[in-house]
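RESIDUES AND SHAPES:
===
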Amino acid sequence: MWQRLSLRARLNLLLALVLMLGLVINIARLALEAGPRVAAEDRSVVLLAREFIATLVAGLNEAPDPEARLQRIVADLAALRHVSIVREEGTAPVTPAARRDDDEVNAPPAWFVRLIHPEQTTLRVPVVVNGRSLGALVIASHPNDEMAEIWDGIVTQLEVGAAIAAIMLLITMTVVSRALAPIGQLSDAMARIEGGHYQTRVAPAGPPELAAIGERLNTLATALGAAVEDKRRLAERVVSLQDVERKEIARELHDEFGPFLFALRAHGSALQRIAGSATPDIAALQNHGSAMPAQVNELQQLNRRVLERLRPAGLSELGLREALSALTRLWREAHPGVAVAIAMAPGPMSETVELTIYRVVQEALTNVFRHAGATRVEVTIAPTGVDEVSVRVQDDGAGLAADHRLGLGLTGMRERVLALGGTMDVTSTERGVTVEARVPTGVGTSPA
């Protein structure tokens, strides 16, 4: 049941229990102290009455009529509270008269009297005047009066304490309700954010702790909205790059493959026509036959370039190190004036990560040899953590212009790295351009 209560209900219930427990402890303390208090009060009253009577009896020696004076004293002492004083004449024992309660309504309940169980204290004081005995005065305590006062105090304490506890509980419930009101707003805002409404914001309110949570929630909603928007732009960019790549491949197939295939078809038709004639032209046969292998060779080279764009040759079979070595060797052969150095630390990587690293290096080298005018390029691949690898391509070229914007190649590489959860930065100085990517290694094995 406790688990089903709300935080507000739990706080209010705990406060009510604490107030009730405090009130019960206070009442119990008063009840436990009542017995010793009544006993002490009885002893004090009896002793005080004894001293008072001794003083009065001493004054009877000078009274003209001690007997009448004593009767008046006893009559006057009958109005005392908490104690009764009666005269004992002769040797007959005197039973202290029962004390008449002034207000029976205020009398303590029987269970309270049994709880305290006070004992009546009696004391006999002899009266001797001028050597003659006038009997004795018997002093008897009446604890009922003291118990009635204690009971009235307990009832008053209970009533006042209950009223104060109720007021405190009401005030605390109001304060708690207002203090926890922002929690409901935070819960509603979280539900809206969970539903995809990332523009949701909450006004920081309540205690500083809840206000700080509201600010963090607004920051989280902003970050989630930005992440979702980046994801949308990334998906849109991926689709756009795929379309661009398809168009480039289609253009190459149309512009490169088409003419060669048309020429091969023309040569084949010519060969069929010459072979079917009565007197074949040997020279024509040789011309057409020698032209066809050259065109097939061109087609094979073109096919290799297209396949290289789609998938690096030898990456799956030889590994990333050998594939990058072959790539840099081709660039060095094509541009002998540029020194290309590669340093790669071994480490386990998935096929997706290897392909991403290869593409980053390939695109960066392409830009260096096309635009940088560099004389030296350094490629460094090394792990930077347990699950991350760093790829750095640095040249000593002229750098990028101030208003330069990244082309489709590097933009595509950056988005490929971001899709894997990594980062990619391009920095340019007067001493060249540095392309650095950090790629997590703990990704899937399917090629991207």
User: Anything to note?
Assistant: The chain is about 60% helix and 15% strand. Residues 208-275 form the longest helix (68 residues). Strands lie at 83-88, 122-129, 132-141, 339-344, 376-385, 388-395, 423-429, 432-440.
